[in-house]
Design a protein that fits this description.
The chain has about 90 residues and is an alpha+beta fold. The chain has a single domain, classed as Ubiquitin-like (UB roll) (Roll). Strands 2-1-3 form a 3-stranded antiparallel β-sheet, with helices on one face. A hairpin with a 2-residue loop joins strand 1 and strand 2. The N and C termini lie close together (about 10 Å).
C-alpha cells in the first residue's frame, strides 16, 4: 500500500432479492477504492444472507465525509487515531 493512499468511506445504496421479496439497503464501508467497497459488500451479504452477486443490485456508490457517517462502528474507525502497524 502506498503512503499517499487514504481510506475513504463509501455509502452504497441498493436492494437485494431474496426469495420473492426485494429488500432495500444502505451500507457504509471503509475501503481504499470503489471496487474494494463493492467486493466487501458482496462478501458480507454473501456471508450473512447467503446471497449471490446476481441477487444484489447497487443503485449508487458515493464517498461520504466523516460528518455524514451514520454507522457508529465506521464512525469510530474513522474518527479515532487508530493505526495498524505493518512492515515494509
Amino acid at each position: 500500500m502506498n503512503n499517499n493512499e487514504s481510506v475513504k468511506v463509501f455509502r452504497i445504496i441498493g436492494s437485494f432479492k431474496q426469495r420473492r421479496e426485494t429488500t432495500p439497503f444502505s451500507k457504509e464501508l471503509s475501503a481504499l477504492t470503489e471496487e474494494q467497497a463493492k467486493d466487501r459488500l458482496f462478501a458480507e451479504f454473501g456471508s450473512r444472507n447467503r446471497l449471490k452477486k446476481q441477487q444484489i443490485r447497487i443503485s449508487s456508490i458515493k464517498i461520504i465525509t466523516p460528518e455524514e457517517i451514520t454507522d457508529p462502528f465506521v464512525k469510530k474507525l474513522v474518527t479515532t487515531d487508530f493505526k495498524i502497524p505493518y512492515e515494509d
